[in-house]
User: Fold this.
Amino acid sequence: MWREMKTRELTATALMLIACAVPAAAQDDGMPQGKRPTVSRDAPPSSNATVNLINLLVKQGTLSEEQAATLVKQADDEAYVARQATRDATAKAEGAEKKATSAADAASPPGTKRVTYVPEIVKKQLREEIRAEVMDRAHKENWASPGMYPEWAQRIRFYGDIRTRYEGDFYPPGNGPLQNFNAINTGSPFLEDNANAINPYFPPTYNTTQDRNRFRFRARLGADVDLFEGFTAGLRIATGENSSPVSTNQSFGTNGGNFSKYALWLDRAFVKYQPVQDVVGSVGRFDNPFWSPTDLAWYKDLGFDGVAIQARHEVAEGITPFFVGGAFPVFNTDLNAGLNTVDQSGPVKSASRDKWLFGAQGGFAARFDPETTLTMAAAYYQFTNVQGRLSSPCLVATASDSCNTDLLRPPFAQKGNTYMRLRNVPTVTSPVTTLNYQYYGLASEFQPVVASAQLDLAQFHPIHIILDGEYIWNAAFDRAAVSANAVNNLAPTATGTPGAYEGGNKGWLARLTVGNKEVKHLWDWNAHVGYKYLESDAMVDAFVDSDFGLGGTNLKGYFIGGNVGLGENVWASVRWMSANNIAGLPYAVDIVQLDLNARF
Assistant:
C-alpha cells in the first residue's frame, strides 16, 4: 500500500514537472528546426530530461504514446510562439531605443553622452502585448499549429461516395410490348390512325425481351457549410446519364461511347435554418424531408425542390413525436408557352399549368428500452395539376402544332401509371384526312396516404433485427373515371383487342434486415429479404424506385440482398430482384446487381 501511494505521488509530481518543463525543453536550440523528440515505449535515452520523463510515464502506462506526443507538440508550438514574441519585442524595443537616442542626440550639445533606460515592468508589459498579438496572428494565419485549417475552412465539411456496379437484366419469354409514354411526351407526338385507336406496334416501346449486361458507376461530391447563428448551406454534384430525378447512375459506354467524358449535375443546393435544437427549416433542393423507411413511395435518393419544416421534441423519456410539412414545385410553366392559333387580340398563350406537391407527415419514435425502438408515421400528399384533361377540339396538321392541354403531360415518367389521350382531335370525313398527333396524360389524380413503421431490435448488439413496413393508398383514385379514359393497363384478350381496365390504387412493402445497422468497418455485414406490391396508380411513377422492375409502378415481386465491409468505409453489395406486372400486358424481369462502394 505504501509503495502504491508513493508511486501515485511520484506520478503527480512528474506530471507537474512536465507541465512546467516541457515548454522550456521544447525550446532546446540544439534540436534541428521542425524536429521533435521521439516519444515511445521503445525510445532510447534522450539528452533532454523532460523527454526521458515522458518516456518513463509512457512505459509505466500513465500516459499513452498519443497523449505524450500531443503534449510535446503543444509545448513545441507554445515555445515557437514565445520565441517569435520575444524576437518581435526585442526588435520593437531596439527600434524605440534608436529613435529615442536619435532625438536626444539632436537636442543635446555636441559631446554629450546619454544612456537609455527602460524599466523592467515596461519591458514585461511590452512582451505580453506582443505575445498576445503574435498568438492571435498565429491562429489566424495557421503557422502556430501546422496542419490545422484556418477558421473559415473548419466550417466546411466535404463528403462523397463512389459506386461501381455490374447489372444484369434478364427477361423470360412471353413479355408483351410496353408502350414508352415518356418517350412520346418528351419528344414528338405519336401519330395514331384515323380511327383514334392505339397501335401497339409502332409507338416507342421498352425493351422487354433482350437480356442486357451493363457496367455502371455513380459518383457524388458534396459540401456542408456552417454559416452563423443556426444557418447552414449545402451543395452536391453527381453523375447521371440524364436529369432523371431517380437515378444518378452512369452506364459505361453511353453518351457517345469511345471513352467519352460524362456529365455532372447539380444534385443538391440548399440553405437550412435551425433556430432551436428541435426545429429545422430547409429551402432549395435537399434530401427527402419525410421519414420513409422503404422506397415504396419515394426513391431513396430523391431530391426535393421547395421548402420544408421539420420538428421533433421528446415529450417523455424515450418518446419523441415529430412533424414534417412542405411545398414543392414539380413543374413550372414556361412563360412563353403558347398555341398555334390567334384570335382578335393576337396570339393565344396557354394557361399556366404549374404542378405542385404539398405534403404533411406526423409520427413518433419510441424507445421502450436500450435495445428496442419503434418508429411509426402517417403522411398525406397532394399533387396538383398532374391529372390529364381532354383539350378543346383541336385540329393538328403537323407534329409541331399544339393543343391547350399539352402542358398537362408529365415532363418525366418511368412506367406503370395509367394514361389517357390529351388531344380532342375531331374525326373529319373524306376527302379530308385528319392527322391524329397525340400526347398522353395521367388518367388519375394523386393524393397518396402513406403509413410507415420500423421496429429495431438490438438485443444482440451490434447485430440488429429490423422489420420495415409501408402501405400506400391513393385517396383521389376514381376507378370509373380512369377506366373510361385508359389507353393502357388493359387486360389482354385472345383476339388482341383491349380488355377491361385492371389497374389499382394500393401498394405495400415488407422487409426483414439482419446484421449491422450500418456497414462501416471491415467485416461489418447485413442481409435483407422482402416483398413489394405496388399497383399502377397508387403513386406517381416518376418518383418511385428506379431499380425494382427497372423502375415504376404496376409491379410485384421479391427481392433479397446483402452487404459486407471490406475495410473502413469500403463495402461490397449484392442484390437480386424479381418483378412482374400486376395489370395489362405480361411483363417480367429478373435483375442482379453487384456493387463495390466507397465513401469519404
Notes: The chain has two domains: 2-153, 156-337+351-599. The first strand starts at residue 156 and ends at 170.
